[in-house]
Amino acid sequence: MIYPIVAYGDPVLKAKGQDIPQNFPDLQKLIDDMYETMYNAHGVGLAAPQIGKSIRLFVIDSAPFEEDEEKKKLSVKKAFINPQIIKEEGDEWAFEEGCLSIPGVREDVFRPERVTIRYRDEQWQEHEQVFDGMVARIIQHEYDHIEGILFTDHLSGFKKRLLKGRLTKITKGDVDADYRMKFPGAKR
User: Fold this and answer.
1) Which segments are annotated as binding site?
2) What secondary structure letter does DSSP report for 3?
3) Where are the domains of the chain?
4) How far apart are CA 149 and CA 152, in angstroms?
5) Which of 68-72, 92-96, 128-132 is predicted with the least confidence, judged by mean pLDDT?
6) CATH: 1.20.1250.20, 2.60.220.30, 3.40.50.300, 3.90.45.10. Which one for 5-174?
7) pLDDT digit string, tens, across residues 45-80
8) According to the UniProt entry, where is the signal peptide (predicted)?
9) Annotated binding-site members for Fe cation
10) Which residues are identified as catalytic?
């Protein structure tokens, strides 16, 4: 099932997600649906708040960032359940980020190059792993979502003021996205 993507301005995007219990109903179906939704919208990551669910879950697939087939084999496709970032380290580097919940807006965001994260996988096994480069950035971006943080929150006050009009248009549904969206005030 493909979910509509929740648009900027919806309070679910600013709420901290709740931990998922091990007996969460239909968790595997939700994860599968999140991948389907992410691929339909041409994303590389999707957090549960972006489909209106205030829980600690996100999925990523870094393959679209890899140019050649050899590097695609090293890409990371994972679901992160109840993740906790343990450490962020290394030099901060800028990359122009976007977000499925904020279509048409892209800005440079500085993030550390490496992240250590503890999470559960789809079989409920606990892992602690280190990721770096683009995969670390995708994880940090999606992790922010389950903490109620958007990439625009990392921008300077000046940049935020410049974007205010475009963000207001998004909250009103005045966007050009090639995927279904749900706008603030619409029933879930």
Assistant:
1) 99, 141, 145
2) P
3) 5-174
4) 8
5) 68-72
6) 3.90.45.10
7) 999 999 999 999 999 999 887 666 666 667 899 999
8) none
9) 99, 141, 145
10) 142
AA identity, residue 33: D
Say what the pLDDT of residue 185 is.
Answer: 62
Q: Which two tokens stand for residue 49?
A: 């708040």
Residue labelled with tokens 């549904």:
173
DSSP classification of residue 18: B
What DSSP letter does each residue of 118-182 carry, written as one string? Answer: EEE-TT--EEEEEEEHHHHHHHHHHHHHHTT--GGGGS-HHHHHHHHHHHHHHHTT----SS-EE
- Angle at alpha carbon of residue 120, lines to 58 and 12, rounded to 5°: 30
One-letter amino acid for residue 101 of the chain:
S
The identity of residue 114, as a single letter, is R
